[in-house]
UniProtKB/TrEMBL annotation:
Originating organism: Bifidobacterium breve DSM 20213 = JCM 1192
Phylogenetic placement of the source organism: Bacteria, Bacillati, Actinomycetota, Actinomycetes, Bifidobacteriales
Residue span, HTH luxR-type domain: 164-229
Keyword Phosphoprotein: yes
SUPFAM superfamilies xrefs: C-terminal effector domain of the bipartite response regulators, CheY-like
GO molecular function: DNA binding
InterPro entries: CheY-like_superfamily (IPR011006), Sig_transdc_resp-reg_C-effctor (IPR016032), Sig_transdc_resp-reg_receiver (IPR001789), Tscrpt_reg_LuxR_C (IPR000792)
Protein name: Transcriptional regulator, LuxR family
Residue ranges constituting the Response regulatory domain according to the UniProt record: 14-133
Region described as Disordered: 154-174
4-aspartylphosphate modifications at: D68
PROSITE patterns: HTH_LUXR_1, HTH_LUXR_2, RESPONSE_REGULATORY
Record flagged with keyword Transcription regulation: yes
Amino acid sequence: MGGMTDLSDSHTISIGVLDNDSLALNAIAVMTSRLSPRFHIIWSTTSPAMALQRCMTHGARPDVLVVDMALGGITGADICARIRRRTPTIGLVCVTSYDLDPYRQDAVEAGAQCLIAKDDIVKELPQAIRCAAQGEPVPGTGFPTAREANRKLNEGHATEGRLPENDKPSLSSRERDVLRLYAHGSSTDEIAALLNVSKGSVFTYVNRACRKLHAADRKEALAICARYDLL
């Protein structure tokens, strides 16, 4: 486990699954294990922290992580970026119950090898897992290889945590709306209702804003916005 996997027909691909919904987690794990005799689920968890720990632990590290894009207080893109920055040896397959478009660019920038709809798991996941186990994207999807993404994320890592000098980032109106509501004390559920979007979309807007602001999390993003009067 933990290296780029041989694609010979007899080779087992070890898989970890992360989804904050326990019912969805169990369904994905069972469904994935039935898609191919080569697919071996070595663990599944609803905890992002546990998934990160296992992905960084020898003996528990899977060849491929299947991760939901909406995880509650953190996004699947956040998890992918943290893993990809550390290693190019785990294939990252993102899944979502929502429309793909709002998540696609985040998944690409986070170093994932593909993004598929949960409704299409039976049809698309087998190829996605086989490609990701090799550190390769599904052909024609525009996603990066694992090694390309690892290199790119680490090249930009030195600038995280500070704004570019003389260059205020351009937050979208929706990103500003979401951060402004958080700054005023609104909860994620309240923001989703007020803006008529899903909770997953709220987390996506926060994640995009954090990247533009070079912030580690929402708290730091709000502090930067206050400091530079961005809201």
